[in-house]
């Protein structure tokens, strides 16, 4: 079952409006957008470290252009209806606002929220459970998963690409060779490593020394983040950059709480049908038309080590105002819900990470903390959207 809440939809619309305005101020040139993307992937936007490109996959204009085309091409799914960009929508922070968890070919259900690809080139572990470590190989899972793009094999896609004349030219330009599985990964990796979004108001203040870049409540929120809230214990901030993640796996109590709820469904749930209008609907009616919700044991599903049950990778907090909904299953619609969860000490299940404890934040302190989190949004998102949409996707 997926969730859609009116406040969440309104917030998403406002975020879209901001992105649309930013995009209108940064129109990518069809001829040289990839040169701009290449320069960005070889630089370090304020607040971010340099991207570490693989020694055997140095970026180029041709690779980035090919990677972008692959990312948006619906022909790469079994029935030519799904592309990578349909779960990682540029205008929605390269994730998906509308659904708590993703859907694949023919509406098939996934149990996790689509993570954003913003700044993914800085990560060493990918997916919520860390099942892959490189962009060059990460794409194979979604490409062949039956509930995602549903191809019968990776080789099936390679054969398809070698039959398409435009791809033959692009692979030759990028690699002086025809399409192959490793070259698909290299091109997708090169494009995704160019999708960088730093230089946020926080960066301009904290790393750039511009005291006027953020308001007083943001500065107070930062003190809570690094002090009373102890958020920075897992969402790391370095001396000259901040990825806001330790890339480790933690049991915050949330996953186990959600599984307890899964095993003990309510008899009814509130459904908001209009502003201020909420109806109680029998859960059995929703269950009758929904796929059964699966258990999600997190990192355990990768390692099968009992110690990894309920653990998920620490997400980066950059640009999270434009990447709702939140948590690995997209259950929380707003930042205030997330803050309240951690302020109350998570689920307070005994096995959760001891750093998750009641914080005792006041209402003002929680609002200041949210203001700080909002200051992590990059002003460069519009440019990334414009580059992503520089030409129509391949849908035929």
Automatic annotation (TrEMBL):
InterPro entries, A to Z: Cyt_c-like_dom (IPR009056), Cyt_c-like_dom_sf (IPR036909), Cytochrome_c_Peroxidase/MauG (IPR051395), Di-haem_cyt_c_peroxidsae (IPR004852), MauG/Cytc_peroxidase (IPR026259)
One of the record's GO molecular function terms: peroxidase activity
N-terminal signal peptide: 1-22
Keywords: Heme, Iron, Metal-binding, Oxidoreductase, Periplasm, Peroxidase, Signal
SUPFAM superfamilies assigned: Cytochrome c
Main location: periplasm
Record-annotated Cytochrome c domain positions: 216-377
Localisation per UniProt entry: Periplasm
Name this polypeptide is given: Cytochrome c peroxidase
Phylogenetic placement of the source organism: Bacteria, Pseudomonadati, Pseudomonadota, Alphaproteobacteria, Hyphomicrobiales
